[in-house]
Amino acid sequence: MSTEDRPVAPRSLAEALRARGDAALGALLRSRPDLITPVPTDLTQLATRAGTRASVVRALERLDRFTLQTAEALAVAADPAAYDELLGLMAGDAADPAVAAALPHALDALREQALVWGGDDRLRLVRTARELLAPSPQHPSPTGLGPTVQEATAGMSPGRIQEIVTTAGLPSTHDSVSAVTALAGLFGDRERMAALLAQAPADSLEVLERLVWGPPYGQVTADPAPRLRWLLDRGLLLPTAPGTVVLPREVALHLRRGLAHRTPEPVPPAVEAAAAHRPQVVDSTAAGQAYTALTTVEELLKDWDEGGPAVLRAGGLSVRDLKRTAVALDVPEPVAAFWVELAYAAGLIASDGEADERYAATPAYDEWREQPPAERWSVLVTAWLSATRTAGLVGGRDAKDRTLSALGPGLDRSAAPEVRHRVLALLAALPEGAAPDPESVLARLRWERPLRGARPEDDLRGRLARWTLSEAELLGVTGRGALSAHGRALLGAPAAPAKSPAGESSGPAEPSGPGDKLPVHHHHRPAPLTPLSPAEQAVASAAAARILAPLLPEPLDHVLLQADLTAVAPGPLERPLADMLGVLADVESKGGATVYRFTPGSVRRALDAGQTASDLHAFLAAHSRTPVPQPLSYLIDDVARRHGQLRVGAASAYVRCDDDATLGEILADKRAAALGLRRLAPTVLAAQADPAGLLEGLRAMGFAPAAESAEGDVLITRALARRTPPRSAPEPVPDGPPVPDDTLLAAALRAIRAGDLASTAPRKPGTGPAADGELPRTGSAETLATMQAAVLTGEALWIGYVNAEGAASQRVIAPVRVEGGFVTAYDHTADEVRTFPLHRITGVAELADDAG
Known about the structure:
Residues 782-844 form the WYL domain. By secondary structure, the protein is α+β, with helices and mostly antiparallel strands. Helix 21 (416-428) packs across helix 23. The radius of gyration is 39 Å and the shape is elongated.
């Protein structure tokens, strides 16, 4: 290939981007969506934005460990660097074949992200990334390398540099620049450097060994020890400040056998299986957990049905209310916080917005309760997957040392949806029935998103991953730690390959080969690596619900009544039966079977709700597989006989009873003193308490009063379900700008290409602005004349245009007609025919004859 035929190497990132096709540019904008917020005017502005500190930091944080190690190696290489130099820094003198195989892919990823540009002979890391990753005393490099010889000797006197060169066995030079070059050449020459170090005392070599992998800085006294003096005299250690020395980068690389990193990690760590179970066992266990999740949320909302806890002034639940909720649900407080946050994320509870603000169920809860169980589960897990609110943070402290409360502010973590999906995707890549070792999952996540300069305790992604594993088990997405079939469908992943079950095991499965590791990256049917779009997730959730539905237990239409005034529900009950039994009896214990206890208070509650004794007898006879015990029948009849014997109305309140002896008994009771009762007539008592307080007071005394209306009819007091006004579920907090969809991406690419065409179109000499990027400026007469001439010749023109909103842009147009103060032209930048008002054209310039 002749020199003229070779492609011209790009001189800037903008030129490198200009050489990309639409597919490559689109990949960049998808991976770094902040670059099109807002859409840049041209590729030069896109390149400038890609080099800003905030954007580069965000891009570096999304690199996997090996790709980040590659960028760190480029930061300590020459600028520009050849591919062979980079390979040497990554693979070392031993030329690790795994590193050599993975390096091209890492370099492609850096190029795609616009963090590296240039051909393999001139690789350049963008300046901002080099500044962030290159070694400095304030910000040590993750490589542990120090400054180069040239950088370390920048402030050294010429005489001292000549002394070092001579002691190192090099001829003296006439200037410091050549002396430093010679010294760097010595340190970079493997044979000469080995000969120099062969003369070093053993204790001097020990000093180098302590500094070789970093930090490269050490402290010395004003009178260094002989072992240090030997190194300082030969430049193997160089002073950087009084009392401080540094190991030059070239010396460290020789001692490291060329490696920029002690342990390059080209291959992601495998996710290992801690146990293996039969898939059927996993699915049935997960289905049982899914049903428990539904009943737990229903129990929570039932507890808050008549109005839940008050909202704190700063927002959220108080610690006391969270403890009370945990006791009611019979779960630990962190688990109670999870269920509360899940119901909130699904839009089932919200604040009522009243002056005395309280939490309550939303109207959406009533709709949710009427759905089939599998669809109700789908609503919960879909909300969980996309929620950024993180229940695991409840009880911790925010940046201002304030306690984070359930349903309160400060719980959003934008990385949560991505981490949840990624953890489940790693589980989906294991064989069916395999439960992962949690530590191997965390190791994989740390490789995919390594911590840069953060303490291990600040590993939010690691904590999110641990919470995901436990929450997935609570929700029934996993069973015994392994991903279920409906959990796999929830991710949009294909079903795992069927395997003949070898029997259930509670410990590690028998390995099929050496070791017991199940590497994720070898699995041939992985789940999608990124969260699904809302439309895709809706389809996946519906598919998961269809798989789960036949696994859920069928609700029962009966209970077993026992002589000790209890009823046993051997499984989940049909909703009408469960609702009625919840009014007629109190739940005594829960588990595989629920035990209900009948008490005078619970029977009275049913009578207050409008039931009669005959209704209750018929209900129990119809729904019990055992005969109704006599004690229960006597209890219902006894409470019913006394129910409504006393009537309470408004006086403030009054009590009336046909049996004046009963009223006399009430007046004689000392507990009635607080009610302020006095006899108005033989069958009527007046009270200072209000009707509700009078009802409660008489019930506490052992009576069974009934409320009555102004007409004297018994009031049926059903529990009123309190609902908030219609509320929407909380919106997830996005992790930066959203990834553009295909329509937005196509429009952005078109706009960037159009702007770039206008800004780079060559103009005739002597026309156009003096500085790049300025709009052309011409008078109205010259603009009109140039337009009219272009109509006749068919030439294209470069114009500056200001739209009705005042936004200025550059365009390349081919005028077709000029009349009435408007020019009709083919707009090359928009690829369409448009009409421009002449008064909005700031100026015009002719393009060069060879302009495309």
